[in-house]
Amino acid sequence: MLITVFGATGRIGTHVVRQALEAGHKVVAVVRDPARLDVAATPALRVHTAEVLEPDRITPAVDGCDAVVSALGPRGRGPTTVCSAGTRAELAAMAATGVRRLVVVSANGAYIDDGDNLLNRLVVKPLLGRLLRDGFTDTRRSDDQVRASDTDWTIMRPPRLTDGPHRPYRTALDRNIGITIARTDVAAAILAALADDATIGHTLGVGY
Predict the structure, then answer these.
(1) pLDDT in tens, 132-173
(2) How do beta strands 202-207 and 170-173 pair?
(3) InterPro entries of this UniProt entry (predicted)?
(4) Record: fold of 2-207
(5) Distance from C-alpha of 174 to C-alpha of 8, rounded to nearest angstrom
(6) Between vectors from CA 187 to CA 36 and to CA 27, what angle results, nearest 5°?
(7) Taking the domains of the chain in order of start, what are their residue ranges?
(8) How far apart are CA 11 and CA 21, in angstroms?
(9) What is the distance between the alpha carbons of residues 117 and 97, in angstroms, rounded to a whole number?
(10) Is the dihedral of CA 78, 81, 87, 90 positive or negative?
């Protein structure tokens, strides 16, 4: 499979690129600064330098790929449009090239659903919602665009992220799950979702 990864220099995106290559896939890593890509060079890896917010610049990176992974995320807690604007550009590039499969990293904390326990519903998530209001607003805008798109989408919804080692994790369709998860396991879940058509058109909760 040829996978185009946006946010490839981020902490989830780097794991996606590495694990995809280890699994025998080919990868196009879309980056603003190639020097920040902490992945060993290999013939299976192509680095495409572009600003993700510009559809014309990223279309060549999407053209001919089998799937797109968007691991974009905000830096800091201030107002941001990186996820929603990036998603808009990615969807435009996919529409221009006829690529359909898409997995987007969202955030468990931006939503309350039946998978959340009482403490999360009444205390933890309302507090997070105030603390991370701008980022969560942008995340929800991005997710709305993905749901409205004509793509074979999956929205990955992890809880609090850690840099812990790989361990067994769980997933659930259209339901929040878990309290924490390591970024390496989010990457593993993304690659598993790409190969699982049952996740198309669904959010996918992932956690321990």
Answers:
(1) 788 889 999 999 999 999 999 999 999 999 999 999 999 999
(2) antiparallel
(3) NAD(P)-bd_dom, NAD(P)-bd_dom_sf, Polyketide_Oxido-like
(4) Rossmann fold (3.40.50)
(5) 26
(6) 60
(7) 2-207
(8) 16
(9) 42
(10) negative
